[in-house]
Amino acid sequence: MPKNSNLGKALIRRQNKVVKSTSSIHTTDYGPNLQSIIDQNNLDEFMTMAALANKQFTAQKNVKLVSESRIVGTGAKIDPSILQQYRYLQFPKRPKWEQGTTPEQLEELEKKSFLEWRRSLAVTEESEINSVVTPFEKNIEVWRQLWRVIERSDVVCQIVDARNPLFFRSPDLESYVKDLGKKYVLVLNKADLVPENLRKNWSQYFVSLDIEHYFFSAACQQELIDKDMVGDNEFGNDYSSRALGYVYSIQEFLSLFEKETHTTLGFVGYPNVGKSSVINVLCKKKCVGVAAQPGKTKHLQTLIISPKITLCDCPGLVFPSVLSSRAEMVTCGVLPIDQLKDILSPVEIVCLRVSSKDLEERYGISLNGRVCASLLLQKISNHRGFYTGSGLPDEVKAGKMVLKDYVNGRILYVHKPPGTVESIEAMAEEIKESIDEQFFVEKNPGKLTVDESGTVTYQGTYKLTKQEKRELKFAARRGENPNEKLKEILKSHGVASI
Ligand SMILES: Nc1nc2c(ncn2[C@@H]2O[C@H](COP(=O)(O)OP(=O)(O)OP(=O)(O)O)[C@@H](O)[C@H]2O)c(=O)[nH]1
Ligand SMILES: [Mg+2]
């Protein structure tokens, strides 16, 4: 077949047409439709569940129902320890099958077990935790892709974004893979965005949990490929000692899995963590599609890269969870920013995390300390000339830009492992950022005046006691410098001196 032939595409199109004409209107996608379904309205969700249960419903008009649980349920205080217990919910597992199971029987089994999983999540949501499970993948076809990748892999590499590994990690996936007798490794991609000290901290954390993990940077390795410098390790760290936080090069990573027998590595994880990018650099050429938006890979792909190694790319999947909010998910890059309705909540998170100095530098604006999302977006809109048709600042356009910059690491925030002790300086910097500047005596030292009658007046953030005022007055009378005395007083209260 000649190169760039369209025959393959034409065959896929024809196949899609055939399936479309026979498929149901409420796309539960038993055909080749691998479109991820994360957000569904209640009716679609209901119809999907009905289709899975092979049930049909007819609509009854003019009936109004008020759900009591919705009224009672809202606003209830949830015990954080209970939520923590449900931090990682179960993901759907492929039911067991035997040699004699026909494809039709297996499909029925899969649908049944998927339906049971959806129902168990609903029960957890309503009666056990009384909290909302954040959006998760609802298309059984996409989960089928994950099951297939795990089945054909000897080693399952769960790729996570190294900036926030705990958001992306799934302990349930780890135990599932291990129960199947396969090897599980955690790959912390985008290591280029994480400073060395934090990589070390994260490594210590995962070592303490006995999790085999490797830092990797597809972006840096791609740069080396482009410069024809493959083999060099950008990070220049000592491979032989493999210190904590070590970032692996392509060859070092592959050699971890090169055994006597052939090994298939499956790359799974949330959308947008860089699964396809890692595969491309391991192949040293672009074999699979990569995009800055989540949901690029729709179908698993298998690539034989050497007689000993095969790689398998999987579509990204959003696992169910209760602790993360939708806004948090947006900042993690797993929900598409372009289709976002609420821009302010995720930008609010960015405002809380990124220092105002970094935001000022990135957008060329001036902020006096931390600002709320709306003010930040207004300033950016005014500076960039983003206006709506009615002449108001276009906060939505500015918000999407900020969120994309955050997800792509152009404005950076890296999460710390639980229990990390931060340096006093770093904490002081953060506190300074979050408190109004005038509270800082260094920046606003106050003013001490002594008039001719010897009366002392001090205007500053520290309130002098009567006794201290008297001491200052007498110091001035003695001809001493009252400012020196004031320094002593402020120092004794732990306040920086003027
Ligand atoms: N800074 C940085 N960016 C990376 C790295 N690896 C991938 N990316 C970026 O992350 C984005 C997503 O990359 P993909 O490889 O498409 O991610 P994926 O996990 O395959 O995503 P889906 O196919 O949607 O599941 C792209 O914009 C990449 O350029 C990395 O090591 N460092
Ligand atoms: Mg991909």
TrEMBL record:
Record's SUPFAM superfamilies? Answer: P-loop containing nucleoside triphosphate hydrolases
**What Gene3D superfamilies does the record tag this protein with?**
P-loop containing nucleotide triphosphate hydrolases (3.40.50.300)
InterPro entries in alphabetical order? G_CP_dom, GNL1-like, GTP-bd, P-loop_NTPase
**Residue ranges occupied by any CP-type G domain in the UniProt entry:** 143-320
Q: Which domain of life is it from?
A: Eukaryota
Its localization reads: Cytoplasm
Q: Which GO terms describe its cellular component?
A: cytosol
| Molecular function GO labels | GTP binding; GTPase activity
Q: Does the keyword Oxidoreductase apply?
A: no
Q: Mind listing the UniProt keywords for this protein, alphabetically?
A: Cytoplasm, GTP-binding, Hydrolase, Nucleotide-binding
Q: What is the protein's major site of localization?
A: cytoplasm
User: Cross-referenced CDD domains, in alphabetical order?
Assistant: HSR1_MMR1 (cd01857)
Carries keyword GTP-binding? yes
Identify this protein by name: CP-type G domain-containing protein
Instruction: Write down the species.
Output: Stentor coeruleus
The lineage, from the top, is: Eukaryota, Sar, Alveolata, Ciliophora, Postciliodesmatophora
